[in-house]
Each structure stands twice: as C-alpha cells, then as structure tokens.
UniProtKB/TrEMBL annotation:
CDD domains: Vsr (cd00221)
Annotated protein name in UniProt: Very short patch repair endonuclease
Keyword vocabulary terms for this entry: DNA damage, DNA repair, Endonuclease, Hydrolase, Nuclease
Entries under Gene3D superfamilies matching the protein: VSR Endonuclease
Annotated Pfam families: Vsr (PF03852)
Length: 139
C-alpha cells in the first residue's frame, strides 16, 4: 500500500469542494447587483498574472476575492487539521503567501484587492465593496 498525502475519504470530499460560484460568492454578487453595481465574474484583473478574481470592477480597478476560511487560514474560523498536519499547514500557508503576493502585484498595477471571508455577511461585505468601488471611481 502506498503512502497517501490524504486519505481516500478526505481526497474524495475535498475534490467535491466548489472552487467557483460558491454560496457566498453568489450571495455577494446578488447583493452587489442589488446595490446597483455591475461587474465581471472570474476574470484576471491583470492579464500577465495567472490569478483570477471572483468579482472584478474594471473601470474602478477593484478586484474582489472570496476566501474560504479553511483554505486561506481565516484567523477566526481557520483550523489546522491534526491528520497530515504538516501537509495541510504547508498548503494553507502557501495559499496565504500567494494571496499576499496577488494583493501586492495588483497594487503595483494600480488595482485594489478586496478580500471577503466566506463567513462574512454578504450584505455587509457588499457594502464594503461598494465603498471601495465608489472611492476609486471618485478619485
């Protein structure tokens, strides 16, 4: 029997996790639309960077990322699995480093990255995004 990074059950469960159009993404987009904002979905804000934002406001140069509490290490709800802990810690810390790098690259290109945690209230998150978009449009 070969050694696995994760058990077959965990692998099967994780492979079923949606990577786009999650419940919180859809709820956030619904709230943004209700507030009168129009946007693009799942696009690269900067074409030379192979990272896709969940919601993009092109003219205002605002890119919104909806981060899962587990996958991105939420300080409130993130957990460190006990089984295969080194693997998962490395995976989550790599995600966090990539998020920070993405925010830096976007800022260098004149964009604002807005991060929304999956546990956030969609209406409150949409208000925060609206304020960011307004501030960037009013410059």
């Amino acid at each position: 029997m070969r050694k696995l990074d994760t058990t077959d059950d965990v692998r099967a469960r994780m492979s079923k996790q949606r990577s786009r159009d999650t419940g919180i993404e859809v709820a956030l987009r619904r709230e943004l639309h209700r507030l009168g904002l129009r946007y693009r979905v799942h696009q690269r804000p900067v074409r030379t960077v192979r990272r896709e934002a969940d919601v993009v406001f092109g003219p205002a140069k605002v890119a919104v990322f909806v981060d899962g509490c587990f996958w991105h290490g939420c300080p409130e709800h993130g957990t460190w699995p006990k089984r295969n802990g080194e693997f998962w810690r490395a995976k989550i810390e790599t995600n966090q480093a990539r998020d920070a790098d993405t925010d830096r690259v976007l800022a260098d290109a004149g964009w604002l990255a807005v991060r929304v945690w999956e546990h956030e209230d969609p209406a409150a998150a949409a208000d925060r995004v609206r304020e960011a978009v307004r501030a960037r449009r009013d410059r």
